[in-house]
Design brief:
8-stranded mixed beta sheet; about 280 residues; alpha/beta
Amino acid sequence: MVLQTWRRGVSCCVALSLWACAASGWAYSLQQDLAARYSDRDIVSVMAGELPVTAVRQPATIALERGIAIILIEPGYQGLTLHAAETLAARMNRWGWQTLLVLSPALNGAPLAADKDAAQPDQYTDSTTSWLDANATETHITLLLNALNQQIADVPGYRMIIAQGMTAAQLIKLNAEDRIAPPDTLVTITPFWPDNTTNRQLASLVKATTSPLLDITGAINNRWEQQTRLLRRRQATTALKMHYRQREMATDLGGHSAITSVFANQLSKQIYGWTRHLGW
C-alpha cells in the first residue's frame, strides 16, 4: 500500500512537471508566433501584477466602429486556438470591432494547483490545464483584465470578452461576484471547471452575471460542460435573465486549419447575431 501510494505520488509529480514544461514551451512558441506574424505596432505588452503579458491589437477595418473585443486564446487543438482566434478577429475587424488577442491564463504562467488529486476528481479531465489553481487563476484574470482595460480606455464603443473552457468559467464567476469591471457582453464557449463542486456552481453563477451573456455550448467535446448545459439555461430562464442566450455549435471543430476556420465561421455568426439582438 505504501509503495503504491509512493508510486502514485511520483507519477503525479512527473506528470505535473511534464505538463508545466509543455505549457511553458507552448507559451514560448506562441510568443514567438505573435512576434513573427505581427509588426511591433500591433504588439501590446501589459503587466498582470508582476507577470508580463503579450497581446495583439488589431484595428477595425471600417469607419463605423462598434467597440473592442478581447479574445482569450486557448492552448490545445480544439476551439479558440491561435488560428481560430485570428480568423475570428479578422471577421470582427470587418464588422467594425477592434480586437485584442491575448494568451489565456494557462499560457501566461498562472500558478498550478498544489493538490493534484483535488484538481482531477475521478482521475478524469477534458483539459490539459486542469492543474491550474482556481484561486490563483481568478487573481491572474482579474489583474490581466484590469491591465487590459487601462490599455484600451481610449477606445469608444462597447466592450466584449470572448473566452473558452476553464477561463470562461472563471470569467462567469468573477462577473457574477462583481470582481471585474463588467463588459457590455460576455461570450463563453463550453464553460467548465474539472471539479464537481466548482462545476455545479456554474449554473447559479450564470444566473447572477451582471453582463449580457452568450453561452455557447458544444463546440468542443467536454463532459464537464455537458453536465451543466441544461441547468445553466434553466437557471437563467427562471431568474428572468433577459440578456442571456444559449446556442449550440457542432462538436470537435478544432485541429486542422480548414476545420478550425469552420469553427471560427460558426462562432462569428453566433456573435454577430447576438450583437444584433442587443441592438449594436
